[in-house]
Amino acid sequence: MLLIDCPYCGPRDEIEFRYGGEAHIARPLAPDTLDDHAWSEFLFMRDNPKGVTAERWVHVHGCRRWFNVLRCTVSHRIMAVYRAGESRPAIEDRAP
Amino acid sequence: MRHSIFSLARNALSHHERWPRQWRSPSPKPAYDVVIIGAGGHGLATAYYLAKEHGISNVAVLEKGWLGGGNTGRNTTIVRSNYLWDESAAIYEKSLKLWEGLSRDLDYNVMLSQRGVLNLAHNLHDIREGRRRVYANQLCGIDAEWLSPAEVKAFCPILNTSPAIRYPVLGSTLQRRAGVARHDAVAWGYARAADARGVDVIENCEVTGFRIEQGRVMGVETTKGFIGARAVGCVAAGHSSVLAQMAGFRLPIQSHPLQALVSEPIKPILDCVVMSAAVHVYVSQSDKGELVIGAGIDAYNSYAQRGSFHVIESLMGALIELFPMFSRLKMMRSWGGIVDVCPDASPIIGATPVEGLYFNCGWGTGGFKAIPGSGWAFAYNLAKGEPHALNAPFSLDRFRTGALIDEHGAAAVSH
Fold it and tell me: ipTM score here?
């Protein structure tokens, strides 16, 4: 089980959280101008990287707030936790 | 050498020390007609049907690890075709029909055991969805029945059908032709049969990149050097996104761990497969006597082939509610595979933005049952350059057109 450091509540067990998938996918500003390909990219296509990924979690059994996590999908190590709206922090160690 | 009672007897006399190797370990040739990435069930089946159905035997199957070491060797071996939508029912039923003749076709015992699969209903919605799926299956010519709680109890007497439990069993669908098969034997059987038809199965050969010229794939870069190919088929399950990234496009796939576990072996007690989407567990008993148990994916993306313990705790809770008699069984080992989950829980089989490069992926948590049908259809697609009617609906392009095949929940178990 992951130990996730909620930026509002501190470290808690994974079972208090729900997963929200890839972070930083911004809703298109002018949706009516999008063609099918662009909609497909926004709705369905994902990076799904093997390595460090930025992902959303919500502390559903705690403060109920959304935040972002940088985590390695091979080692499951959590490298950074930051609030929604903040940009992805640069991390030195990108290896698993 | 053909397998028979005589070959078995002859080799018994020599203490089984003189069985020939089941397949060669060739070095890669400079180029092939078709290169398939991934020597799991789907990849090997594709190679076999390319050789058998289309006469294309100048084929290499590249595997970064060992044959059948991915999800083919890590699943709960359930085989069924009771999917809701016509497109899914067609390809899974094709697969089940191939399963039914597979041991004879491959001259290899895949130990298909059509012991019947129950999909339990625990609430009014489950009942409606279950009955709807039964009718849909029957319209597609697939055997399906609806059982009342009393009939469920008669079919599987050790199941707890008491109305007093938290999620009582209110009925079940039953597919009698469904069951289980031997996971390793499927990979080995296809490998042996493909090898006999001239296919090169190359293990310990990881693909590190694609050579793409003017939008067309020319071959693959591997840890054993460049291998040319007129067509490349990627059948890499959880690592499909990684390969797609090498080729310069993205897939609508998320890779998740899916865990399963087995108990200590016990005497025969459970003679069917029981699945429940609502309390979420599925269980059968292997020929060795172990209970083979699985459930849902871990929530987060991962390539680690392991998951969190609370997922196992949850599926054990579901198991004990349905089968109180299993409460003191010891669990022997657990494992995880990386499954490639699509937004609509249906696979992607066919062309990609790169000419000559085809993907067969997105089978998610339910790929094992589809191995023969998937390989059969994908081989057609690779040989003809255009999809068969069976796999045409499962194009990557459906995520642009919106013609999704939404099997989430409809597929009889939550994917």
Answer: 0.94
